[in-house]
Amino acid sequence: MALDADIAAQLTHNADGLFAAIAQERDTGTVLMMAWMDDEALDRTLTTRRATYWSRSRQEYWMKGDTSGHTQYVHDVRIDCDGDTVLLVVDQVGAACHTGKHSCFDTPSLVPGDGN
Amino acid sequence: MALDADIAAQLTHNADGLFAAIAQERDTGTVLMMAWMDDEALDRTLTTRRATYWSRSRQEYWMKGDTSGHTQYVHDVRIDCDGDTVLLVVDQVGAACHTGKHSCFDTPSLVPGDGN
């Protein structure tokens, strides 16, 4: 498999050949996480409709949920205006965050008096 | 000014001293854009409540809307679980994208039959 050439041409890769991927929950609009992809990860994501990232720490592909069961079923994918980020709209099974929280951004607010 | 030390300690910076910043619209949940910050940009954002990024191409701070008028009024800021991304919840004036579109992700879907 290889990523469609027209899609690959729209992407701007960093020095490691990667681009950012934001996962947003379809039903709620919640921003779940940010991770990284290369062309192969995006191809796998589009082909399988399950979000697949490149793990920078483990240096391997990582289909979300493979070990945790917390799969992300991909409904939509968009590349941003300058090509260095993709937005995945997903149906999230279970928790998106390795901490067990639904979103990786379910953390204390930095803005006093706002948020939680 | 300097970023609060407790906040700075929660951040994981890349080789350029930067971390990712996602802006999400408060009212609609729309993911508007992804850009970059350093500690000073986050401090300015928290202090002024106007989203301020670090422009990698221009190598300068960039208060969103300074030239375009398309200010992002910051309602909430969260750091993600591993500290390399912040999520800004904003009220967006006008278009977030330099193309004139409301969101930088207002682009064709890569998923046939879905999206638009």
UniProtKB/TrEMBL annotation, chains A, B:
Its cofactor is Zn(2+); Mg(2+). Homodimer. Pfam families: PRA-CH (PF01502). InterPro entries: PRA-CH, PRib_AMP_CycHydrolase_dom, PRib_AMP_CycHydrolase_sf. Keywords: Amino-acid biosynthesis, Cytoplasm, Histidine biosynthesis, Hydrolase, Magnesium, Metal-binding, Zinc. This is Phosphoribosyl-AMP cyclohydrolase. Pathway: Amino-acid biosynthesis; L-histidine biosynthesis; L-histidine from 5-phospho-alpha-D-ribose 1-diphosphate: step 3/9; Amino-acid biosynthesis; L-histidine biosynthesis; L-histidine from 5-phospho-alpha-D-ribose 1-diphosphate: step 2/9. It comes from the Bacteria. SUPFAM superfamilies: HisI-like (SSF141734).
